[in-house]
Every structure is written in C-alpha cells, then in structure tokens.
C-alpha cells in the first residue's frame, strides 16, 4: 500500500508532506520518516515507520543468515502487535508513542517463542506501515548517546514503571499473547548462529545455564527488549523520557533491560562505579510503582529473585557479544570481570 494513501485513509487531513527521513531501519529493512499534515482535526506531524524487507539482505557485520532474516521479520510483526493491542496500556510514567494506524492491524499472532528456523518463511506478507505520534512535537525532542547519572536515572525510572505495569507472578504459558514469549533481541533462543560462532570457553559451556536462570523466573514482566539509550527520547531538560522501537518486546526478567541500558549509556568506568547504586535505584522505583498501581505483588519478593540475576544478565550479554562481534567495545574489562564472577560462582555451586 502507498504510504500517503494509507495516511489519508487513516487520518483526516488536507495535505501530506514528507519532511525528512529520520533513519533507515537496520540492514535496509525500511525507513522511518517524519510527515507534516495539514488540516483542522489532524496532528501537525506524524512519524511513519515503513517496513519493506530487501530482496537481498546485507548485515553490517555479515550476519546474513536465514535465521537472522526471519528473526527480523518476526520482530516487525511483534512490533505491530505491540502497537495494536498493548501500547495503549502504558501511562505517562512509561510514555510511548500513540499509534494512529497499522496497515497490518488485522494480523494478530500467537505468542512468539524462541525463533524456529524450520518454521515457514513469512516473506510474503512482511511489509507493513505503522503511523505513530511525533514525540518531538509532544515534548521529547532530545536524543543522547551518553548520559549523566541523573539522566540515566530518568530512563531507569521509566524501565521500573514499565516493568511494574506489566508485572506477573507465575504467568500463564500463553502470556504475553502476540509478543515474544521471551523478549530481548540477544537472548540465546534467537541467537544460535552467534552461539555457534563463539570459541569454546567456560562462558560458552555455561550459556544455556545463564539463559535458563533468566528465562525461568517466577516473576516476569514485559521487557522492552532493546532498551539502549538511542531508543529513548528526552524532554528539553532531560527530566522526562519516552521510549520507542518495540521490535523485541516480550516476557522476561527486567534485569535484561537494566543491564543493557546501563551498558549503552555509561562509560566502562561509570558502569564499574555506579552499577550497584543504579540497581538499588531501580528496585526502589519498582517498589514505588507497584505501590502506586496497587499491585498485590511485593517488590521485595521480586528483588530477592531478580537482584542476583543482574550479574547473570551481564554475563549473558557478554556471551552474545563474543559470538556476534568480539572486537566490539562492550567486550571490555568490566564485562569480562562480571562474567568471570558469575562463572566462578557456577563452579563453586557445581
């Protein structure tokens, strides 16, 4: 479907003008474009995320496998499901864009488990258009690559509120319907290619144990799944934040989001100095959010289960990095130290 035709069918407006391409999607799977709308009852601008997978895939780091391609196609279906059925549940404390329309709105899928490389190809109906509110126009025009501690806490509070809102105590097997059963773009079930590429090591030998600890928790929530700093939009003074990019949203342990976020926005030295205090801050805000939501779930019970998994999640991400791009800057001394502490603990318990 033509993008401008879909916009005009979905939003009543007099004219539609493409203003700028904000970015192309990873590996050339589409683009995100800002449009200006004119009319009496329409927003002044919207963001259009159009998914149109390339006929020939090109990955920046060479991961042009069938599993990688199918995982991306599934991720866009999950994102469509998120905006169709889940995003409207978020409140101001876990701000996300408003969805005005989906060209794939009739495609509501069952929960997506760890990617099955033997499943049928979904190439034929993978194109989609998502119409979203313009967060810049809604008071979130700032983007950052690195954060101060106070700015990082704004995002961590967003994560705590988001996790609290969707917190489950021993959820049903079909939860969360239409999303990844296990959220997080780098978890082992969707990264078998990278796992096979790892050199043999104690970390590789422990990979399934790490994944089981993070995946088989009693308490689960929706995790963003790609909670890097680039996916947060800040207010002018950086005191408020909204999140975008929900391709890997799904069930899981909130430590995966927290670890990935901290590593994305702070230097190696800052991670070393402040990861303990930032984890403490996260659980404080999680407690407050559950109380505010009048949840029957007790934050201390979640913390007792999840806090030891912070280091496990860090080691699990290190497992991904060593298979995906061992030369990447996140393969640093602090990550290796965190991983070694977890492996040592495994050896003691064994």
Short description:
The chain is α+β, with helices and mostly antiparallel strands.
CATH topology value of the largest domain: Aminoglycoside 3'-phosphotransferase, Chain: A, domain 2
**N- and C-termini, Cα separation:** 57 Å
Unreliable stretches: 106-111, 113-124
Rg computed from alpha carbons, rounded to a whole number of angstroms: 20 Å
Shape: globular
By CATH's scheme, which homologous superfamily of the largest domain applies? Aminoglycoside phosphotransferase (APH), C-terminal lobe
* Helix proportion range: 40-55%
Q: What number is the mean pLDDT? A: 91
What's the CATH architecture of the largest domain? Answer: Alpha-Beta Complex
Order of strands across the biggest sheet? 1-2-3-5-4
> What structural class results from the helix and strand content?
alpha+beta
Describe the structure.
By secondary structure, the chain is an alpha+beta fold. It has 2 domains: 3-133, Phosphorylase Kinase, domain 1; 149-349, Alpha-Beta Complex (Aminoglycoside 3'-phosphotransferase, Chain: A, domain 2), CATH 3.90.1200.10. It contains 10 helices and 10 strands. It has helices spanning 3-10, 66-86, 149-165, 192-197, 202-215, 255-265, 268-292, 299-306, 309-324, 333-349, and strands at residues 15-24, 30-38, 45-51, 99-102, 128-133, 168-169, 219-223, 232-234, 241-243, 250-252. A hairpin with a 6-residue loop joins strand 2 and strand 3. It is globular and about 70 Å long. The N and C termini lie far apart (57 Å). Mean pLDDT is 91; it is low at 106-111 and 113-124.
């Amino acid at each position: 479907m033509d993008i401008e035709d879909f916009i005009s069918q979905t939003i009543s407006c007099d004219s539609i003008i493409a203003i700028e391409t904000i970015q192309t999607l990873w590996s050339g799977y589409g683009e995100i474009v800002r449009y200006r709308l004119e009319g009496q009852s329409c927003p002044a601008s919207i963001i259009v995320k159009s998914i149109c997978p390339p006929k020939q895939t090109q990955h920046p780091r060479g991961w042009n496998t069938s599993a990688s391609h199918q995982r991306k196609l599934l991720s866009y279906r999950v994102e469509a499901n998120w905006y169709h059925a889940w995003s409207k549940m978020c409140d101001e404390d876990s701000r996300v864009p408003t969805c005005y329309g989906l060209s794939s709105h009739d495609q509501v899928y069952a929960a997506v488990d760890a990617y099955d490389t033997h499943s049928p190809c979904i190439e034929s109906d993978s194109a989609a258009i998502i119409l979203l509110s313009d967060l810049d126009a809604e008071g979130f025009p700032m983007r950052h690559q690195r954060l101060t501690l106070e700015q990082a806490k704004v995002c961590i509070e967003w994560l705590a509120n988001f996790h609290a809102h969707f917190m489950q105590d021993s959820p049903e097997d079909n939860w969360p319907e239409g999303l990844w059963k296990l959220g997080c773009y780098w978890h082992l079930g969707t990264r078998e290619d990278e796992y096979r590429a790892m050199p043999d090591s104690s970390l590789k030998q422990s990979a399934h144990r790490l994944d089981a600890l993070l995946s088989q928790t009693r308490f689960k929530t929706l995790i963003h799944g790609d909670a890097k700093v680039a996916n947060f939009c800040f207010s002018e003074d950086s005191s408020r934040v909204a999140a975008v990019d929900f391709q890997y949203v799904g069930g899981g342990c909130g430590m995966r989001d927290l670890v990935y976020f901290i590593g994305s926005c702070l230097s190696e030295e800052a991670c070393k100095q402040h990861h303990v205090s930032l984890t403490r801050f996260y659980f404080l805000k999680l407690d407050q959010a559950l109380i505010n939501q009048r949840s029957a779930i007790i934050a201390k019970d979640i913390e007792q289960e999840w806090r030891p998994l912070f280091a496990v999640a860090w080691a699990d991400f290190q497992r991904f990095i060593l298979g995906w791009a061992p030369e990447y800057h996140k393969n640093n001394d602090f990550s290796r130290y965190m991983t070694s502490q977890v492996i040592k603990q495994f050896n003691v318990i064994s």
